[in-house]
Write a structure and sequence with these properties.
21 strands, alpha+beta, binds zinc ion
């Protein structure tokens, strides 16, 4: 993703993995293939691998540099994590290289926000050092939604049969709390003027979006409120990972309606390429417009994934 400014804030990202990932009808169990293909035909080829019938999904972390803080949003899958499954056992070197390419060291991060605590959003919260999980960012305060954290804690403690999910909480979240570096907050938490959360429950029990306002600019990191531009035009399509698909759809529609036809920059976790973009209303639904640049300035004109109405 090409870096851009939100007022005085610089936003960039680095990638852990990218490329074709899941078929549309696997990712969205209520989708029908013909409808999905009709929509995808109108979108940029970068969002869908037609030859393999796979949606293109990026796993990435975002770096937000405000005049006062270095902030990391979502920490991908992480390294040396047990029981994550073969699909997530790819090399994690690109993430380390990407982080270093920002000229940052782990010590430089002031805040880590996890939009939610799924396996691909909290992995680099910790590293394995001498057989022990320790916070990767020693000087950071980690912001976890209280509702989200407590839900996974309860699942970890009560559903021992659900071993894989429990492990994520145990190795990537609990050690941060035990180190005294976690701040469990409400879903409308405000860190300071211009940095605040809004709820996006449904994809996970307590998912939140992270908002930044600087000067007159507004950007919202939406986590997994949507995984693909298809969900703008078909907002009822929740993913196979959503425990509450209807609540996820309600959250999606509320957020899409709130940003539609505004200059709010929307940054979904998994969109490939430029990732960031804008939302336009289109009849009863919406369409996605990827950010483009004009003389280095983000512009909402001429986006590549425009869906003609
Ligand atoms: Zn995700």
């Amino acid at each position: 993703m090409r870096a851009f400014h939100v007022g005085d804030i610089l936003v960039s990202s680095f990638i852990e993995r990218e490329g074709p990932w899941r078929a549309p009808t696997v990712m969205f169990p209520t989708a029908d293939k013909a409808t999905a293909l009709a929509h995808l035909k109108k979108m940029s080829p970068e969002v869908y691998d037609a030859a393999q019938d796979l949606l293109v999904i990026t796993y990435q972390s975002f770096v937000v540099r405000t005049p006062k803080h270095n902030i990391l949003i979502d920490t991908c899958v992480g390294d040396h994590k047990p029981l994550r499954g073969p699909a997530l056992e790819y090399s994690k070197q690109p993430w380390l290289d990407g982080f270093a390419a920002h000229g940052l060291q782990f010590e430089d991060i002031d805040y880590v926000f996890c939009t939610h605590l799924h396996v691909d959003h909290c992995g680099w919260n910790t590293r394995l050092i001498n057989g022990k999980w320790v916070p990767t960012f020693p000087n950071a305060t980690y912001i976890f939604g209280k509702k989200e954290y407590e839900a996974w804690e309860a699942m970890a403690l009560e559903e021992e049969r659900n071993e894989r999910r429990s492990v994520v909480w145990e190795d990537s979240c609990l050690p941060v709390v035990e180190a005294g570096q976690a701040k469990l907050v409400e879903a409308d938490f405000e860190l300071e003027d211009g940095i605040w959360l809004t709820p996006a429950f449904g994809h996970s029990p307590g998912q939140v979006c992270v908002n930044f306002r600087s000067k007159s600019d507004h950007a919202i990191f939406t986590g997994d409120m949507m995984h693909h531009a298809l969900q703008c035009v078909e907002p009822d399509w929740s993913t196979c990972f959503c425990p509450s698909p209807e609540e996820a759809a309600e959250s999606r529609k509320r957020i899409l309606a709130s940003v539609a036809d505004t200059d709010t920059i929307v940054i979904p976790a998994h969109f490939p390429g430029q990732t960031a973009g804008y939302v336009d209303s289109a009849g009863d639904a919406w369409r996605w417009r990827t950010m483009e640049f004009d003389n280095g300035i983000p512009t909402r004109e001429g986006g590549k994934q425009t869906m003609p109405v």
